[in-house]
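Thread: (2R)-2,3-dihydroxypropanoic acid complex, take 2
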Amino acid sequence: MKRKIIAYNFELTENLNKLPDEFEVEIFDSINPKTDPAFIEALKDAEGIVGLALPVDQQLLERAPKLKIVSNNSTGYNNLLIEEMTKRGVMGTNTPGVLEDTTADAIFGILIASARRIAELDQFVKSGSWKGHLTTAEYAIDVHHKTLGIIGLGKIGSAIAKRAHLGFDMNILYHNRKRNVMAEKNYQAVYCDLDKLLKESDFVCLMTPLTRETENIMGEREFKLMKKSAIFVNGSRGKTVDESALIDALRNKEIHGAALDVYQIEPIKKDNPLLQFPNVVTTPHMGSSTYETELKMAELAVENLLAGLTGKRPKNLINPEVLK
Ligand code: DGY
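Output below.
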């Protein structure tokens, strides 16, 4: 009998052809992993899972007694209940190191799009509203020489700081668990507490992973601390933001606008009030989604999976304790 692997919402499935013949892959796409009968059945024999944002919780782990590894096709791993996986001897892996520049391009891109109203003005042209010279109603705000506050200055945050400082002469403030000496030296990033960052930044860019500590890190109090002229950018995870507090801040004009790539619920529901604001740029969690980078991520995810299933240490093991 072949050894079973589950691929869940794994787009570039041709990469699975590289797996040796001893494995068979069952592919699941856009199903409900809690209720789909074929998926639940497949879990009984699965030794490995590779895919995107599968909630790996107690129930799933109970349903998958042979599971050895869950290989995330993403750098974020808030979908994995790591402590429980470790207890059960299940490895977790992710795909860092290949997507930082791509994601930084996208998040800095939506920051610019929001400040310069690119999506709005695109509609202005396409709808035939451009009748003459631009008036103050179409004016935007500058990005260059402003202050960018980055909450979470890891690899992607640093790549954003690089673009902002070296390309746009921006001043960088940051708040992070640890000091980032490289960014302080190369991009003159200045470490400060969260409140100071919120009060002084023209753009507040949230790039933290989602953890117990960062869940709802941006709430009513935090939006009130921001400048009325400031733009909020979220490139982390939706649950780092209290979305109703963000909606209130936008309604009450406590902030100037927002640029969002992630949401509390994904895909975002059509009736979410965030979709009604012209001053909110929305993209579909696409930070790393270019052909080149998705390919590198898929290759790395398969490499990690195979290592875990063949007794080797996966390159991007999140819970090394599991090997002790
Ligand atoms: C990541 O790699 O974590 C991206 O957000 C895609 O999920």
